[in-house]
Design brief:
four-stranded parallel beta sheet; 2 domains; alpha/beta; homodimer; binds zinc ion; Helicase, Ruva Protein, domain 3; about 200 residues; two-stranded antiparallel sheet; 6 strands; Dna Topoisomerase Vi A Subunit, Chain: A, domain 2
Chain lengths: ~200, ~200
């Protein structure tokens, strides 16, 4: 429609998650008709971000430097290490404001059928990180999926020989969750893991 | 989060219509973690589109050339001219496959309170376009809003002296519309504009 470059822009916008053909068209028209300056700014930000952002050498989260701000921070508890699957999880936990330790990003979860074993998600490197005795508690914050659970269990086994406590983030009914809409697996977990109030 | 350039990318993505802070974050992470090549392609497409796409000199729709493909086409009926508010409307009508004439894009609608009068939406130029006697029917396809209706009525007045038929796209219950969910203004229009079947 309109021109080859218009169609190319619509196609290029389709790489964004949950952007279908209709919203890509709407976005392209909006940018060209109403916000060319914003479009140029977005192009610049995309070029900059792809050039400069990469994995932190220590925790494997994202940074523009050799080592990320969280790893370098003196204000965070080095004895607490939170293990997550991806940088998106680091972001979610940071935004919850519930954690003041350090992180370790696996970059995935165990998935033997896809050929993703302990080496592929850097478990030997994590065990090595734990071997200096600085960390006293590892919080396993992999996803509450079958793969995330399996990965957490594997990590407990792999760290058996180390003098470190390992905990798993709680699973249960989400805040505001109405029981009739919560799936039965979650509900049965929530009953099983019930906590004493009195 | 993560780095300045990450935050800048999240901010830049917010200019896209209906992208809030959460989805901008999700998009930024997706691009950096999963599709750097796509991100670079999008940056390129944005730069190209903003540089090369502009208004058609004849119909004021969008094109990369002096005059758009629809205006130049010999396969379209030059006697039929469809007047719309924006290039998005040209796209919607083209995609409906219901029209084989030419277009005229106003670039807005009359809105006296915002200082948008006939000059601002190029009505004198449209009247001039109609003056060569080539067009025999003008289809008024401005939006079915108060402003779109007012603009259509104004155009009928402005073209009173010209030997040209003017029609308005039909208003009524949309395809698949269940009456109980259709607003009462639309319903009353639909009853008023009822069509004889037998
Ligand atoms: Zn780090
Ligand atoms: Zn044109």
């Amino acid at each position: 429609m309109f021109s080859g470059r218009f169609d190319q822009l619509v196609q290029a916008l389709r790489i964004l998650p949950s952007v279908g053909p209709k919203s890509a068209q709407r976005m392209a028209l909006h940018l060209i008709m109403k916000n060319k300056e914003g479009a140029l700014g977005l192009a610049h930000a995309l070029n900059e971000a792809t050039s400069y952002i990469h994995e932190c050498a220590v925790c494997h989260s994202l940074t523009e430097n050799e080592v990320c701000d969280i790893c370098l921070s003196n204000d965070r508890d080095e004895q607490l290490l939170c293990v997550v699957e991806s940088p998106a999880d680091v972001m979610a936990i940071e935004q919850s404001g519930s954690f003041k330790g350090k992180y370790h990003v696996l970059g995935g979860h165990l998935s033997p059928l896809d050929g993703i074993g302990p080496e592929e998600i850097g478990i030997p490197y994590l065990i090595q990180r734990l071997s200096d005795g600085l960390v006293t508690e590892v919080i396993l914050a992999t996803n509450a999926t079958v793969e995330g659970q399996a990965t957490a269990h594997y990590l407990v086994e792999a760290a058996k020989h180390l003098p470190v406590n390992m905990t798993r983030i709680a699973q249960g009914v989400p805040q505001g969750g109405e029981l009739e809409y919560v799936d039965s697996h979650t509900l049965s977990q929530a009953v099983h893991n019930r906590m004493r109030m009195k």
